[in-house]
Amino acid sequence: MAQNKFAQRRSSLEQFWNWRIDLFEKSDKAEVIQVAEEIIEKGFLMEDDFSREGIIAREIAKTTWKSFCRFGDRKSASGALRLVWIDSQKGMPLDTQALFISAHYEMDIIPEELAQFMIEYDHGKSYFPAYREYENLKKIFKSLVGFNWNHTFAKQIILKKQIETGFF
Question: Cα angle vertex 64, ends 62, 65, to 5°?
């Protein structure tokens, strides 16, 4: 019985993979591969962004209203900021976050910088320019092939192209 469920699951995954291959084959393959390469490159650039804002964007988490008001201007807190960045139950105080970020990256990050980041990107870190570009590229990928970005699939089609052309 357990083997039968495993076989069904494997068959279902193979069908899904083949469906993606069919959609890819019907698309402009060169453009899809180019966008996939750009997405992967942008992901690496985001991971390697050690600017102050890049580090804050990568590491910042929700905070409490009390902590935000302590280090930020409560009058600048939009409704979106409250929905996205404030969590009175699970939020981490900004001074604690700043301490951890500073220790991890060996640079002085102050809680006021985190509060200012929240004010500037009140709709979330997905509005940080690098993250926004990354998401826009993934939307372009979806518009070209008809399914959401999948890193594993993209690596497979890029590898296949490299094998066919001989360029690695």
Answer: 120
Digit-coded pLDDT (tens) for 36-91: 999 999 999 999 999 999 999 999 999 999 999 999 999 999 999 999 999 999 99
Q: What angle is formed at CA 60 by the lines to CA 59 and CA 66, rounded to 5 degrees?
A: 150
Distance CA 55, CA 157 (A): 31
Largest CA distance in the chain: 62
**Secondary structure in 3-state letters for the chain:** CHHHHHHHHHHHHHHHHHHHHHHHHHCCHHHHHHHHHHHHHHHHHHHCCCCHHHHHHHHCCCECHHHHHHHCCHHHCCHHHHHHHECCCCCCCHHHHHHHHHHHHCCCCCHHHHHHHHHHCCCCHHHCHHHHHHHHHHHHHHHHHCCCCCHHHHHHHHHHHHHHHCCC
CA distance 142 to 161: 19
Look up residue 106 and give its two tokens.
């060996």
